[in-house]
Amino acid sequence: MDYNMSNLIPYIPASEYDKVAEDFLGLYYPEALVKPTPVPIERIAKEELGLDIQYVCLSEELDIYGMTIFSEGSVEIYDPEEGLYDSKIFKRKTVLIDPEAVKKTNIGCRNNTIAHECVHWYKHRLYFKMQHFTLPRQAKYCKCGVEQLPYATEEEDIMESQAVAIAPRILMPKTPFVEAATQLNIGYGKDNWKAICQLADFYDVSKQSVKIRLEECQLM
């Protein structure tokens, strides 16, 4: 895979998203590539990637799902009891998940958010390492919002788009996912709702995420 040598962001065309997800699983949970199986993404994040996952409130508006810390430093978080923002020092390799933000969105959003942050660490840490050398006194982190953040740079938008696309492919790798969907007789022109619900429960993701994945795999 090639990198933009000016900023170390990887070039990942959409046609390679499934391969990146499969490479990730091949390293950290190859069982998921053999047969349909739920991916224990939080365990992978902690035990395989060495990420420290913490659940804290990140914004008053609940518009930030998660954040990955790439170099130790001060990060602004929100205290809902006091109704105030405060700064706290977090170490490198910390992933912050806002439990209320993911709960507000849908059941299954939590796993997708963890997978999303894993993609950032897996593919984007070189970019943030470079940023650390250029601005060494500032903490380096990425915030991942419910919607595109208005103040995000073009580089951050590229990395966010990659993580958004690859995360559900990690949770639902293509070949086993197609096998599971086929076993449930999902297809064009059918009432697939019950099967979508079953897949969402099985993979512990949202029904919307399953629907999108079925469309990506040309099953609906």
Q: Helical content, roughly?
A: 40-55%
Strand content bin: 15-25%
User: What gross morphology would you assign?
Assistant: globular
Strand order of the largest sheet: 3-7-4-8
Structural class: alpha+beta
Beta-strand segment tally: 8
Please give a structural write-up:
It is a single chain. This protein has 220 residues and is of the alpha+beta class. It has one domain (10-168). The model has no long low-confidence stretch (mean pLDDT 90). Helix 4 (109-134) runs antiparallel to helix 5 (154-171) and helix 7 packs across helix 8 (207-216). The two termini are 31 Å apart. Strands 3-7-4-8 form a four-stranded mixed β-sheet. It is built from eight helices and eight strands, in the order E-E-H-H-E-E-E-E-E-H-H-E-H-H-H-H. It has helices spanning 17-28, 41-48, 99-105, 109-134, 154-171, 174-183, 193-203, 207-216, and strands at 3-4, 9-10, 52-55, 64-71, 73-79, 84-90, 94-97, 140-145.
Write the layout of secondary structure elements.
Layout: E1 3-4, E2 9-10, H1 17-28, H2 41-48, E3 52-55, E4 64-71, E5 73-79, E6 84-90, E7 94-97, H3 99-105, H4 109-134, E8 140-145, H5 154-171, H6 174-183, H7 193-203, H8 207-216
Parallel strand pairs: 3-7
Antiparallel strand pairs: 1-2, 4-7, 4-8, 5-6
